[in-house]
Amino acid sequence: PNTGGMGTVSPNPFMPNNIDGVLKTDILDPILKGFKDANLDYRGVLFIGLMIENGKAKVLEFNVRFGDPETQVILLRLDSDLFEIMQKVSERKLNEVNIKWKEDHVACLVLASGGYPGSYEKGKVIKGLKDVDEDIVIFHAGTSFKDNEVVTSGGRVLNICALGNLLEVVREKVYKAQEKITFEG
Hints:
Blueprint: E1 7-10, H1 19-37, E2 47-53, E3 56-63, H2 70-77, H3 82-90, E4 105-112, E5 136-140, E6 143-146, E7 149-152, E8 156-164, H4 167-180
Antiparallel strand pairs: 1-4, 2-3, 4-8, 5-8, 6-7
């Protein structure tokens, strides 16, 4: 069964060399041409889900929102002010922003409810959130607050992220953090 993203890394070490030109020519340029031809004044986020095989990219989906968990690893590397970027996008002045990125690597691991992507129970108490190291960032995806406890309320429950200078190190950090967090299922 199809799931949403179950983990991501940034920068992506699996991207083929020279794929940027292919993505621009085969996907981005036609999208921009389509916007122009349709006289569409779109300003905002366009998330493009891709599959890349043998140096060719195929579009799986378009979303006019940030992707999850893909965005977590990208935004943790962003060294510029996201609000300023979005404000300039809304004003058609993005060219005035010098977007800066951290050289670090980020890994993100999704913790999912038992049974996901099929049926799963909700309301399971989540323990250990305060036990992870300070440099771990946890994004709540399918959680709620009930009876003074954080509980599960979705299939993809938490996204555990770590930032650092080596991919192997941050990957190990998220898996160590995952061991401290528990919920039934």
